[in-house]
Amino acid sequence: SDDFPLPPARHVSAKMHRDTSQRHEHGITFMFAAWGQLTDHDLTLAAETKDPVTRRDPDCCGGGRVNPNCMPLEVSVHDPFYSHYHQRCINMLRSEAGVRPGCRLGSRIQVNSLTS
């Protein structure tokens, strides 16, 4: 909101999670595992978005008709990992939208397949 564009998500990820040979197990606690499992379940158990016509996973990087739930991540040609595979886009979809309590308008609600 201060007129500076945000950097691409993949750029931030590559800078924050560099591959190093140094190990830091002394700083990892059980909370690390608990947080990882919470994050994993929140992402992997989210209800999947399907294309309403084909009922398949939309291809957000293929061009052509773009599904409104697509949020493709652009990858730089200089990316430290994906550049080796000539990949310029990461296919990313928003999870299926849920209905807000009382069917009120507002921000999007994520549906989790365990709690839906």
Automatic annotation (TrEMBL):
Protein name in the entry: Uncharacterized protein
Gene3D superfamilies noted in UniProt = Haem peroxidase domain superfamily, animal type
Give GO BP annotations, semicolon-separated: response to oxidative stress
> Is rRNA-binding given among the entry's keywords?
no
Reading the lineage from the top rank, the first entry is Eukaryota
Keyword entries, A-Z: Oxidoreductase, Peroxidase
Region Disordered: start-end pairs? 1-21
**InterPro entries reported for this sequence:** Haem_peroxidase_animal, Haem_peroxidase_sf, Haem_peroxidase_sf_animal
Organism encoding this protein: Graphocephala atropunctata
Q: Which GO terms describe its molecular function?
A: heme binding; peroxidase activity
